[in-house]
Amino acid sequence: xxxKLEDIKKLREQIGAGIADCKEALKQSNGxxxxxxxxxxxxxxxxxxxxxxRETKAGIVDVYSHGGRVGVLVELLCETDFVGRTEDFKNxxxxxxxxxxxxxxxxxxxxxxQEYIRDNSLTIDQLVKSVIGKLGENIQVGRFERIAIxx
Length: 151
Hints:
By secondary structure, the protein is an alpha+beta fold. The protein has 2 domains: 5-50, Ubiquitin-associated (UBA) domain (Helicase, Ruva Protein, domain 3, Orthogonal Bundle), CATH 1.10.8; 58-148, Elongation factor Ts, dimerisation domain (Tetrahydropterin Synthase, Chain A, 2-Layer Sandwich), CATH 3.30.479. 52% of the residues lie in helices and 23% in strands. It has helices spanning 5-15, 19-28, 33-50, 81-84, 87-103, 108-113, 124-135, and strands at 58-66, 70-78, 115-116, 119-123, 140-148. The strands form 2 sheets. The chain has a 3-stranded antiparallel sheet. Strands 3-4 form a two-stranded antiparallel ribbon. The longest helix is centred in the first third of the chain and has 18 residues, at 33-50.
């Protein structure tokens, strides 16, 4: 099947995967962009699972305050400072902080098993694994703290 350059660009803009990965996904899905997205998500999760044993000793601490009533600190770890400075990594830390503020998980395990508030077809664990697949490094939620007025 002949894959159009416009379809590769469109898929890449929507998912953020590499050109070769987008082209392969479109070939596997016979040019269907929605099926290609699912293929890339699955591929990202498979990549994420294989990186889970690698040591994480870099990362960031994200701070989020919801209207001055709820505050969250979250430590998100990765393998290198290079990945820790990427927008994708910073965005993941912020999304996790939002999730914690909204859903008040009791532990990291509880957090990872929760449905993602912006897309209930994903769990937080799946969200993290999709970013692992994109960035190519192990990513772990180290710890978090949620503080709310009156709790």
